[in-house]
Amino acid sequence: MKRISVRSPCSSANLGSGFDFFGLALEAFHDTLTIELTGEGIEVEITGLEAEKIPNDPERNTAGLVAKGLLKNRDVGVRIQLHKGIPLRMGLGSSGASAAACAYGLNEILNLGLTRDEIVKWAAFGEKAAAGESHADNVAASILGGFTIVRTIGDSISAVRLDPPPNLEVALALPRVETAEDKTATARAILPKRVSFRDAVLNAQNAAYLVAGFHKGDVDMIGCGMMDLLVEPYRKRLIPGYEKVKRAALKAGAAGAAISGAGPAVIAIIDSDKASALDVAEAMGEAFRDEGVECEVCCSKPSFKGTERLDRIENAVD
User: Fold this and answer.
1) Burial 226-252 (b: 16+ CB within 10 A, else e)
2) What's the pLDDT at 231?
3) pLDDT for 266-287, tens place per residue?
4) Residue 316 in domain
5) Domain residues for 175?
6) pLDDT tens-digit series, residues 3-22
7) For residue 105, what is the enclosing H or E element?
8) Could you tell me which of 5, 72, 195, 257 has the fewest CB atoms within 10 Å of its CB?
9) Contact call for residues 129 and 65 (beta carbons, < 8 A)
10) Which among 61, 173, 81 is positioned nearest to 125, based on CA atoms?
11) Could you give the CA distance from residue 169 to residue 28 in angstroms, rounded to a whole number?
12) What's the structural domain count of the chain?
């Protein structure tokens, strides 16, 4: 048999103005996945955070679905051991990290020769198991690391990575808010089918400003560009006290704040030369608690590595 272990970081999608195409990889939490080649079939074993809540049926598990797709018409089976380190249903790309680790790991162990964009595409395919549809914002960030921009046209997916500024830090507020089992699908269902032309133009301006901020290494520009007029006005209703939490983050010195992915986590971007990420995190946590919502907070730096191998592929002796 052959065996490989890989690790994928959590991620924050959207960053406000970039719904479904911005992502930022974070060092705060990771998933670890080990793949063993077997004779046939796909087995998924899960340990770690809330493992009992994650299905091990390959059709309903993001890593398992990636394996099913990539192994189609291949005379090989796999045993996938997934150790969850990323909190579930929080808006930190937990399902995406598992899919990313599997796509990356299978490409390595089977010498598939996939391009980075193809690995991202297969990982996005795995997200169907959790979200009901393919989306690449989280998986691109988990695979490539740094700040990523995804462009999807039909079946074609391409991803671009930019390095975050060295003085960019992140504060995360993780509220204990009851969420639906199909949280991402629920958060998508409440979005409007149409938006005003004015709001669409302003959001495009904000997204462009955010990208320029990453290109120039200007954290304040990044924060300003996080302002969202298309998604946040609707999704914030799912997060008790969100507006108060966002105001607290900005008052404590954050350059910008937004719902992390589909939430309920809130992400704040900080210029470490001007403010303390810990102060911002604590301010957000206190604002949630003032609203009667239990909340944990943490600080993080961006992940520059993305998904990485933890060992070499090696022949194992029975």
Assistant:
1) bbbbbbbeebbebbebbeebbebbeeb
2) 95
3) 999 999 999 999 999 999 999 9
4) no
5) 168-300
6) 999 999 999 999 999 999 99
7) helix 94-109
8) 72
9) yes
10) 61
11) 11
12) 2
